[in-house]
Amino acid sequence: xxxxxxxxxxxxxxxxxxxxxxxxxxxxxxxxxxxxxxxxxxxxxxxxxxxxxxxxxxxxxxxxxxxxxxxxxxxxxxxxxxxxxxxxxxxxxxxxxxxxxxxxxxxxxxxxxxxxxxxxxxxxxxxxxxxxxxxxxxxxxxxxxxxxxxxxxxxxxxxxxxxxxxxxxxxxxxxxxxxxxxxxxxxxxxxxxxxxxxxxxxxxxxxxxxxxxxxxxxxxxxxxxxxxxxxxxxxxxxxxxxxxxxxxxxxxxxxxxxxxxxxxxxxxxxxxxxxxxxxxxxxxxxxxxxxxxxxxxxxxxxxxxxxxxxxxxxxxxxxxxxxxxxxxxxxxxxxxxxxxxxxxx
Length: 345
Hints:
- InterPro entries: AB_hydrolase_fold, NDRG.
- This is Protein NDRG3.
- Belongs to the NDRG family.
- Pfam families: Ndr.
- By secondary structure, the chain is of the alpha/beta class.
- An 8-stranded mixed beta sheet has the order 1-2-4-3-5-6-7-8, with helices on both faces.
- It has helices at residues 4-13, 20-23, 82-90, 93-98, 128-142, 154-165, 185-200, 205-216, 225-238, 241-252, 268-271, 288-296, 314-317, 319-332, and strands spanning 47-54, 57-64, 71-75, 103-107, 147-152, 170-176, 277-282, 303-308.
């Protein structure tokens, strides 16, 4: 946009000078409505990181919001951490309004946090069950009795495991692209190959392509070229390949959640997740069928399945739809949410 000085120069060339009223057309007061800037690095001073000691090493947990409010606990997917998975979504205008009513605890899987050093060679990475058990240490550290779980992919599976073992600690779950079964042969083969390459060669083109497919599905660049470039650059430059290989190994060795929908009402609560579950996927996500399987194993009385159109990575591509669904879900569970949309950043 030209400055007022540029306008004056152009007007002089035309033989006229702008009047005072023209000069006051407040080029100073025009507020361009750009979206909040997209960043995959630490830049939000409202989040405070703390190191939590567990029986399987330390975890980095970032806290966002006033700690005297109800807790939302997040867990990220493969190749990501709390910054690259949740920062943009939880800073989205509607989510910022929602978070005035909650405190968010963002959990990073071991070695996946921003700038994490390479884990020692003799370090045995926790299994998926052990990763879920680590959340008990997080709750103790922050003095939390209950939380609302918000997880994506591998993180959704970890939260579901914790909820099965500790149903009294989880009041509700919002799970995105949650896989409830063990890995099939095709996934196992691809992921073992990815893990081997990450250890020996770092972030190869093959691993990069797989991660992009895992998060976005196919034909990603046709939908959002800029977003694709942001994540490609992030995977190439910011991910510790050795640590990611360990996380992938743990995920591909996951066991079945061993839940199923029970017809007999007297046994219903013994065979599946007891708390309300919102099960979300994108229509272009490669995990959409897995969420259908997961949905078929949940109690229809306290679960809902939502497929969002025209996206694979729902938090990045359709944040408005996810935040609205999440708000209605929480209100339906009795949370008194005073929703006042803030001004755009």
